[in-house]
Amino acid sequence: RSSPDVFESRMEKRTEVKKQPVGYSKQGEFIRCMEEKARPIFFAEGLGTKTSKGGFTKDKTLDSILNVEMVKEKSAEEIKQIWNQYFSAKDTVYAVIPAEKFDLIWKRAQKCPSFLYALPRKEGYEFFVGQWSGTELHFTSLINVQTQGETAPSQLVLYHYPELQKEKGIVLMTAEMDSKFLVVHEAQCLANQAQLFYATDRLETYELVETFNHRSSEFKYMSVIAELEQSGLGRELRPGQVSDKS
Q1: Which of 96, 103, 199, 208 is 20 to 30 A away from residue 135, measured at CA?
Q2: Which residues contact 243 (CB under 8 A, 6 or more apart)?
Q3: What's the CA gap between 64 and 56, in Å, rounded?
Q4: 42-57 pLDDT tens trace
Q5: Whether the model pTM is above 0.85
Q6: How sure is the predictor about 150, in pLDDT bands with cuts at 50, 70 and 90?
Q7: Domain edges within the chain
Q8: Distance (Å, rounded) from C-alpha 161 to C-alpha 173?
Q9: Does the keyword Mitochondrion apply (predicted)?
């Protein structure tokens, strides 16, 4: 009664408290905030990278994505879980490749740096040329190569990181793609094919890669399609069938 202004102020605060959901408290909010800040920050994507004209990252290092020092105390399986969990929430292609498999891929990539891949479409296939540049694998459609030659822009880049290969026995991989030309499951199909042809134990499969690089006059486009159909990858992207491999 003696101070109406104070009374009104107290009533307003009381109304605010009533509006807050059950279980709400500023203290709880503060604790959650502190817990989030205390969590290990394994990833720092975007730091220390430069974007090229085509929208792809130039000189994309593992340090620019992952806090390498922080994961050195983790086991290979723990790093794999961290990597997969992080990228599963992103619209991209990613993988954790065993060191032995990457050794084989890398050895073959040195001898045969390019290959022709076939991406299943609603009607037929679209061919893509894959070209290794260091540990990066660049893809662009064959029609782009035919019309623009060496200046043809990449439409998908697979980045392989061997920094943990010796110590942890794994190679991390992620990708960037031009979403105007490819969607994730199509990019995944091309990434799966890279392993199919470069990491295979079947000599007839890898022989296609050797023929394309060293005896191009003998290379037959239909051999790639036949290999895809036999492996099952050629059927995955037919209408109504979408690959969910990662």
Answers
A1: 208
A2: 185, 188, 189, 192, 233, 236, 237
A3: 14
A4: 666 543 344 444 566 6
A5: no
A6: confident
A7: 60-234
A8: 6
A9: yes
